[in-house]
Amino acid sequence: MKRRWFLASTAAVALATVGLTTACGGGGQSAGGDGAAGGDQAGGGVLTMATSADYPPYEFVETAGGAEEIVGFDVDIARHIAEELGYELEITNIDFNGLIPALQAGRADFVMAGMTPTEERKQNVDFSEIYYDAKQTIVFQSGGGIASPEDLSGKTVGVQLGSIQEELANELVETVPNVKLSPLNRINEIVQELKSGRIDAAIIEDTVAEGFLANNPDLEAVEIPEEGSAGSAIAFPKDSELVSEFDRVLAEMESSGMMEELIVKWFGDRAE
Ligand code: ARG
Predict the structure, then answer these.
(1) Right CATH number for 136-223 from 3.40.50.300, 3.40.50.720, 3.40.190.10, 3.40.50.1970?
(2) Is the CB of 163 under 6 A from ligand 1?
(3) Residue 208 — pLDDT band, cuts 50, 70, 90?
(4) Residue 44 banded pLDDT, cuts 50, 70, 90
(5) Is 21-133+231-267's fold the same as 136-223's?
(6) Is residue 10 lining ligand 1, measured as CB closer than 6 Å?
(7) For helices 206-215 and 2-17, what crossing angle results, to 10°?
(8) What average pLDDT does range 151-166 have in this prediction?
(9) For 67, 99, 169, 225, which has the most beta carbons within 10 A of its beta carbon?
(10) Looking at residue 37, what is its pLDDT?
């Protein structure tokens, strides 16, 4: 089962490189109207989810059968919640760094992108409860001799623009001498830069890194030990009434065992 998503994700990642918009996305138009963002009139409304589909197994573009579709753990959760609340779901694929601005501009009703609810982000958007936890790793070319963050001294480190990994790297720069950062828009760009030797290392979360490692035996990873876990939550425009409704369905998914099933489906043997 695991192998299957790795294969799918290889194709997905290749396609995401050319900046595809989604097959099922609504081209980014707002779903804030139609009472969608109001959330109290179930049925008939459309909810627009924005994501950055470069993040297998959370979200990636699958090309099986010639059509492109955004699939993944987050997408399964979003589909279930939308269905429970009586909405149609549209998905739009944009760079991670543009997700919060899209919410603020009313171009999406919610964001699911393995996004961590940081204090800084909470100033601009509201978050659901956390639905999954992850840790941070340093990825590098095999034989790169990196065992801890201190070994990044003198190295160029890739991170996704606007991510908590970029924040973490900015902190590293303060303590580890001579670290150069290379912020990039898409995770697959980071992996390409790493493979071609244009950057020496990258900070990527564990479950996502594991997928890329499985496809790229020339890469290896080491966990950043003192980093706490960095959970994922759903983001909404400030004061969205959808937050409590989504939290209610998330809680139901936890208690019914459905969340666990999805974790096993997408994370395989990494499921707790
Ligand atoms: N969890 C990290 C953050 O919130 C990274 C998420 C990146 N997600 C993505 N779809 N590329 O910053």
Answers:
(1) 3.40.190.10
(2) yes
(3) very high
(4) low
(5) yes
(6) no
(7) 90
(8) 97
(9) 169
(10) 44
The class level of CATH for 21-133+231-267 reads alpha beta
- Regarding the beta carbon of 55 and ligand 1, being less than 6 Å apart is answered yes
Q: Ligand 1 in contact with 166 (CB < 6 A)? A: no
Q: Where are the domains of the chain?
A: 21-133+231-267, 136-223
State mean pLDDT over 105-133: 97
Pick 225 or 223 by higher pLDDT: 223
> Is a pLDDT exceeding 50 seen at residue 43?
yes
Best of 54, 70, 95, 96 for a ligand 1 pocket test (most atoms within 8 Å of beta carbon): 96
113 lines ligand 1 (CB under 6 A): yes
Q: What is the model's pLDDT at position 65?
A: 81
Tell whether ligand 1 has an atom less than 6 A from the beta carbon of residue 206. no
Q: How far is the CA of 41 from the centre of ligand 1 (A)?
A: 31
Q: Is the CB of 259 under 6 A from ligand 1?
A: no
On whether the pTM is more than 0.85, the answer is no
Atom index in ligand 1 nearest the CA of residue 53 equals 10
List beta partners, residue 157.
Answer: 181, 201
Q: Report the share of the chain in percent with pLDDT over 90.
A: 77
Q: Which tops the pLDDT comparison, 15 or 181? A: 181
Q: Within a 13 Å sphere around the CA of 184, how many CA atoms are in the beta-carbon half?
A: 22
